[in-house]
Specification:
The structure is a single chain. This protein folds into 2 domains: 2-116, Rossmann fold (3-Layer(aba) Sandwich); 134-293, Tumour Suppressor Smad4, CATH 2.60.200.40. Helices cover 31% and strands 38% of the residues. It has helices at 16-27, 42-52, 64-74, 91-95, 102-115, 139-148, 154-173, 234-245; strands at 2-7, 31-36, 57-62, 80-85, 118-126, 129-131, 134-138, 181-185, 188-193, 195-199, 203-207, 210-213, 224-229, 257-263, 265-278, 281-301. The strands form 2 sheets. Strands 1, 2, 3, 4, 5, 6, 7, 8, 9, 10, 13, 14, 15 and 16 form a 14-stranded mixed β-sheet that branches. It has a two-stranded antiparallel ribbon with strand order 11-12.
Length: 303
């Protein structure tokens, strides 16, 4: 097979030694080419070019942001996407059972390619940009924006950094006392919200080894699930976190939470600008956001 390895050298877990070992494993049985990302959006352009050039699979050694960009570039093509964990959390790779060590993951990938272990999945689409596992509107996007300003600290402790950024953002940098936008599903007004997650896969994130699950019924082969927090007072945040650590079932019955499954399109209308992110990649502030589901969009190499 002809493979293209996209490497984000600035990703938290990518080292020169790991990169060499991954290339050795992948290149032993396949025609391997290597490209490095140099800026935001570069992985999407590299992946799109690889698909047009007839590459069989694009392998990504990087974090969730690089992987999401590659998925956006490959959407609607026959070229497969294969994640290798190179970031600090690697939500998508872990959600499909890929080993946390990138060299071991590369060895398993070679076995998967030999078995032709492929799966066709659906993707979310937000304003033309495809995403793999979730879109976050409101508080979590503000937290990610805060973390990105201190991204150099990820190598020293990602999860403490996110916890500290969440507390700081909630207390001082995000007005959680009022709704920031309203949510509409195919013209029906669902409600006002200060924080909403649109899920294409079960784990929203990971805290250490524990998955945080807001939408237990979300998955790659069903339409999107929307989890809307009417307010994000302290009880909602603490209760939501406790539920997410234990499978997310209790969260669905919380009085401040509305959850809808089988969602194919929805719209966010702001009461002023609100922040948004896709797959952990902060994309700025907006006052209007449209999200839809794209079925049969991408081929994934499964372990």
């Amino acid at each position: 097979m002809r493979l293209l390895l996209i490497v984000n050298e600035t990703a938290t877990a990518v080292t020169a030694r790991r990169r060499v070992l991954v290339q050795r494993v992948l290149g032993a049985d396949h025609r391997l080419e290597v490209e490095e990302t140099s800026r935001r959006g570069h992985a999407a352009r590299i992946a799109r070019g690889a698909a047009l050039d007839g590459v069989d699979a694009v392998v990504v050694l990087g974090g969730d942001g690089t992987l999401s960009e590659a998925a956006d570039g490959l959407a609607g093509t026959a070229t497969a996407l294969a994640p290798l964990p190179g970031g600090s959390t690697n939500v998508f790779a872990r959600s499909i059972g890929i080993a946390y060590d990138p060299v071991r993951a590369a060895e398993v990938l070679v076995e998967s390619l030999a078995r032709r272990s492929f799966k066709r999945i659906g993707l979310g689409v937000a304003e033309g940009r495809r995403f793999l596992f979730h879109a976050g509107i409101g508080l979590d996007a503000a937290v990610i924006a805060r973390v990105e300003r201190r991204s150099f600290l990820k190598r020293y402790g990602t999860h403490p950094l996110f916890v500290a950024a969440t507390i700081d953002t909630w207390l001082r940098r995000y007005d959680h006392r009022r709704p920031r936008f309203r949510v509409e599903l195919e013209g029906e007004r669902v409600g006002d919200s200060a924080f909403t997650i649109v899920s294409n896969q079960r784990p929203w994130a990971y805290l250490g080894k524990r998955p945080l699950i807001l939408a237990p019924h979300a998955g790659l082969d069903v339409p999107l699930t929307v989890t809307l927090f009417r307010s994000i007072d302290l009880s909602s945040i603490v209760g939501g976190a406790a539920s997410a650590l234990n499978g997310g079932q209790r969260l669905m019955h919380h009085p401040n939470v509305v959850q809808r499954g089988d969602v194919r399109s929805l719209t966010f209308v702001g009461y002023g600008p609100f922040p948004w992110q896709l797959d952990g990649d902060y994309l700025g502030d907006t006052e209007h956001l449209s999200i839809s589901w794209m079925p049969d969009a991408l081929t994934i190499v499964m372990p």
